Amino acid sequence: MNKTEAENRIAFLSDKINYHRERYYLYDAPEISDSEFDALLYELIALEEEYPELKKPNSPSMRVGGYVADKFEKVTHEVPLKSLNDVFSFDELFSYIDKTNEALGKKAEYVVEYKIDGLSVSLEYRDGIFVRGATRGDGLVGEDITYNLRTVKSIPLELKEKIPYLCVRGEVYMPKKAFADLNKKRDENGETPFANPRNAAAGSVRQLDSRIAASRNLDIFIFNIQSSGGAPSLSSHAESLDYLKMQGFTVSPSYSKFTEKSDIQSEIERFGAERQSLEFDIDGAVLKLDSFADRETVGELPHAPKWAAAFKYPPDEKKTKLISIEVNVGRTGVITPFAVLEPVNLAGSVVSRATLHNLDNIRAKDIRAGDYVFVHKAGDIIPEVEKVSLEDRTDNCVPFEMPHVCPSCGEKVVREQGEAAYRCVNAECPAQLARSLEHYVSRDAMDIDGCGEAQIAQLISAGLVRSAADLYDLTAEQLETLERMGKKSSENLVASIEASKQRGLARLLYALGIRHVGRQTAASIAEHFETLERIKTATAEELVQVDDVGEIIAESITEFFSRPGSLHLCDRLEQAGVETKIKITRVGSSLEGLTFVITGTLSGMKRDEASKLIADNGGKVSSSVSKNTSYLLCGSDAGSKLDKAQKLGVEIIDVSRLMELIGNPGLD
Question: Which is catalytic among the residues 115, 153, 176, 536?
């Protein structure tokens, strides 16, 4: 494909992706499967990597992140992002309505909306293109989080109309399911979970690495036009929301107009009744004057408009008895305590267990078995002990202590310095087995097709698998004895297990589930050490010489390979024929010991060709510029990597200089 063909294909793919994204997020009417959508997106990303000069700032590929900021720049809001005055009862709300109507001299029309519990942001568009997003900050000055907001899939990067200027305000939030999944992972990794979806959303949009924001599945509702230039003249709030929806924004999901106080109360009560069933968190309802002319008449206070008020719902929490504190063991060995409760109806469901997160949380709240406690749902999803009713405490309520040995395997439990989590460090602990195997067979690890959660549960239950190494001993005949495993599916699974032996050292290292070792880090380590044997015996000092490996990761790796269970597992995998070495195809050693980073469009050579050329001659290619980078191989249209290399004093070279380093005076 030449450049012209690539440009046409990129335009086609961008239009197609934007159309299907709109069908999914705006109209909730998808026309293709997730896998078909992903195929379109991955093709676009591949073309833009090959032709970076064709990538536009409003490309759908910007959703995946990849920008790393040194800090957030300050943004002064042209129109302040003010807060709202809160009311906590219908008497207070009716008093506000009466005063507002009296000031207007009429019975006004009001819009009632959800009060989304998230993080308020502004989005700016010039000529219909999204150019900047910022946090609310103190209302006057916020922080530039443009790159992170570009990863929010429901934010249009280009509007339907090329409006000269438009600034809107919205609420970034984390859906309840995404919040539950994120906290589950954090609990399993021994990390402090987020208290609620709002905190999770706020922490996500303020990540310096936009890839982290992209992984958090954030969403947004737009609820206001801050200012505009060239947009149609609008007379009311409801009209403005209709207009924003036409431009491609996901606006407040429910907005209706009322004049009677009784109707307003009924709508707010309806919101409260359906609160638990919503996919997002709300902490109240917002009442706004609909007419912009009426808003001008009543005016604003320095901190809040007088034309709006927020009705806040009381927290939904119940008091019940904590019968006992027990623990379970996660995939990474984290011992997580939980409360066994006398069943209580909370937020629409019967709750008999609640998370306690870790020992530090238990001690901070002074939670003891036998206490009466107040329980609520974090993010309306996860039952959590909020506080203890100390007046109900008796002498029989004894402080909790973490177990010294794993309740599953009996191995010693350890707590690493600076961490809240206690862990079982036995790699072959039965309680960790199912989740460890699910990780091992996953697509990004050993990619064993046909071996999902249900199959793994059956294999463990039947006693056929006690570690990942046992997978390689399975026969089709054994698999046929399992439920819903016929002859063909059993043969296919055995073939997939056999094929996984050739996935390579990097994926094997990731599949082992070593704490803090992600896919990119595993690839860097594999490339540096070349064999599993060398990685097993590497010291922490040797490991930190690898790009992407710091002291914490190095300590985690050395600790993992110091355990007998880990070494036994690796030995068995190697005996089963799993590839534990990188195949070396070097043609020279002129670049031995040198680390390269590649950026931009190279002259006369594709970037993957340059990477192979460097590796073939003993060099190493890294994905990020650091003080350990020897050279930045730079082409046209270079991005932030060039700026960072210049700041660090890294030598910048082109293809012709690379060939000189290798020993060739020019290209063939």
Answer: 115
